[in-house]
Write a structure and sequence with these properties.
Blueprint lengths: L1 H16 L9 H8 L8 H16 L8 E4 L19 E6 L9 E7 L5 E3 L32 E8 L14 E2 L1 H10 L7 E6 L2 H5 L11 H5 L7 E2 L1 H9 L4 E4 L11 H9 L4 E4 L13 E5 L8 E3 L1 E6 L3 H10 L3 E3 L25 E8 L4 E9 L5 E3 L17 H14 L18 E8 L17 E2 L1 H11 L7 E5 L2 H5 L11 H4 L8 E2 L1 H9 L4 E4 L9 H13 L3 E4 L12 E6 L10 E6 L1
Parallel strand pairs: 5-7, 6-8, 7-9, 9-10, 18-20, 19-21, 20-22, 22-23
Antiparallel strand pairs: 1-13, 2-3, 3-16, 4-10, 4-12, 5-11, 11-13, 14-25, 15-16, 17-23, 18-24, 24-25
Length: 600
Amino acid sequence: MLRRRVVAHLSRLSQEVSGQHPRVPSAPARSHMASPCHGGALRPLMAAILSITFGLLAGPLAAEEPKHVDLSLLIAPEYPSTWPSFPPFQINHYRKIGPLSAYNSEILILDGNTGTQLDVPPHSVTAQDSGLPNAGRFGLAFTDKIEPWQFGGEACVIDCKDLLDATPNGRSDLVTKERIMAWEKAHRPLGPGDVVLFHSGFSDKYYKPFPEGRRYGADPVEGVTPGWPDPDPECMEYLASRKVLTLATDSTSMGPLPNLAEPTHYAGLKHGMIWTESGIGFGQLPTTGAFYCMIGPKHAGDPYSEGRAFGIVGEPLASRLNAAARAKKAVDLSVTLADDLPSSWPGRGVGNHRQPYFTIKFGMNPNIKIPFMMHMVDSHTGTHLVPPSYSLPTKGFDNQSYAPQVRGWLAEYEKKFGQRGTSDVTTEKVPLSQTCGNARVIDVRSLRGTTKKEAWPASPSITVDHLKKFEADNGKLKKGEIVVFHTNWTDDFYKPLPMGEKCQLDPLNGKSEGWPALSAEGAMYLADQGIACVATDAPTLGGVDDRQALFTYWALGSRGVVGVEFLTGVGKLKSGAYFLFAPIKVRDCHGGPGRAIALD
């Protein structure tokens, strides 16, 4: 560990001396290095010496097994998952495996302040030409407009635990710029690409089921217990001067009580900052060096969003991701969610649809003069997770409770593939390490247009032969890689309705060909190669044929493979780039909207 720290320090020093390091030294350091009488002329020699020393000391460091650290609250009805004066989180298990459905799914009702959440500038900044107070150039930087590189970066953990419960009731102790400056003196200057995490331990101590859970939000706001520690406006201004654009706090809000919440928000957001609120477990990360990321559903026009925060520890992966985020080498692979987009399952015929994506407006946001927004969604809305329990019943399930048609399909499946499995792996039980990894992009666009019209509704099948052909041309698939199918479907058809009916409704009803879909045999082949996560830029991995789709999901689930569906922009994704997907962390959920990005 000591050797690794010395190597990291020498690496940063070598980059600074050679002028390549992205962080700008303080003004005195710059003038000292640039002065000929203080060694400026020796810069090439110093750089060479440091480079040689670094190389000799570093040697062939063995790669560490990366550790994906979940830093998100569990969302459940009995937890204080929402702001205390907002509507409570609700989950309705409206689709259950049995006589009426072969799948499990939920209706989720939640607003952007649910669980671990993302704030973006329009939370406090109004549109530049709005004529409203606090207008600025980031007034339209809603959750769907944030560039993907800003969601992540090098975690810089600021220890604020001494401020916890150190104030009278209803008041927050303040993180000042002096604390940040002291941290910089002890560690290194902050700069672009850093993510500052304020670690007080508030969530670790107080995020509990009700009635104890009142201590997390309602009691501090009501003034009957001390508030959470958080930065004051001057601290925000100082971080902005260091070009830090991403922050996180492990407390209920980035706003200190009782009256600095909005001034602190505006002080940072006006500079284009984004941040995580209600993180947890920040003490699991080292002070510097880990990669931090916060991603959530891509709601159009929302000033905040529920999300998933996590860290990645271990070299060389953490440094690779930090460097990519700092260099802004990132792509967003998630569809935008809006009421007029085809983001939910329409079903075949009439009355077989899932819960459509609904925006529900309530109250009034006093900062930006528009109503607050919450959303009612099916758990398989937009870019989402498919855990094994989506199609697999729990242990002890009576197969005779299936509808007759599904019982017939099951007999056929088990005769061909063996016993269908069972699972209780819901969304919150899927490790983040399973949905993150090096991408292997398999281009299946050539399959489009290969079915006969008289066979519709039908999807072209991605077979074992297609997968083996890819491996013959591009090298074997490796354990831990994320296989991503490039169909170009969403790029072509994910459009506002009614044009967007071409995305799902028309192919489901046999008016057009379906999207390329993974066969059950292909799913099992991928599992045999060690692939634990398969993704697609089509609405589903299973396609439009009900029987074939169920076979595919049974095959994936029985082998413990998860899916990520409804990506977009896969044409920009390079094989080998690091794929990151995280769904919102809802307990007992059989899907989960989220966001996918990739760093290269």
